[in-house]
Amino acid sequence: MATLLRMPEVAASATHATLLTWNKHVGEAVAVGDVLAEIESDKAIVEYPAELLVRSASCC
Questions:
Q1: Residue of 13, 6, 2 lying closest to 39 (CA atoms)
Q2: Which pLDDT value is given to residue 39?
Q3: Is the pTM above the cut of 0.85?
Q4: Rg for the chain (alpha carbons), in Å?
Q5: What is the dihedral of CA 31, 35, 37, 43, to 10 degrees?
Q6: Residues with Cβ < 8 Å from 35, sequence gap 6 or more?
Q7: How far apart (Å, rounded) are the C-alpha atoms in residues 1 and 13?
Q8: CA-CA 20 to 30 A from 5: which of 19, 28, 43, 48?
Q9: CA 3: distance to chain centroid?
């Protein structure tokens, strides 16, 4: 079953952000707290941690 990941709020005033890196391969186990991706806004680059124990599917 697929799980939709919501873009986290990277900064209070940010209106858009860019997915810089996706750190998991398709089928790779993902544990809670693993960094799935890095997201960049005009003010910061933040890590996006996993909130569930899952297997990675395709990105984008």
A1: 6
A2: 87
A3: no
A4: 12
A5: 150
A6: 23, 47, 48, 49, 50
A7: 33
A8: 43
A9: 12
Q: Residue 21, class by beta-carbon neighbours within 10 Å (0-12 exposed, 13-18 middle, 19+ buried)?
A: middle
pLDDT in the model for residue 57: 56
Per DSSP, which regions of the chain are E strands? Answer: 18-22, 29-30, 35-40, 45-49, 54-55
* Nearest-angstrom CA–CA distance, 36 and 56: 9
**CA–CA dist 9, 52 (Å, integer):** 18
State the Cα–Cα distance between residues 5 and 25, nearest whole angstrom: 16
CA dist., res. 51 & res. 42, Å (int): 25
Token look-up 């919501």 returns: 6
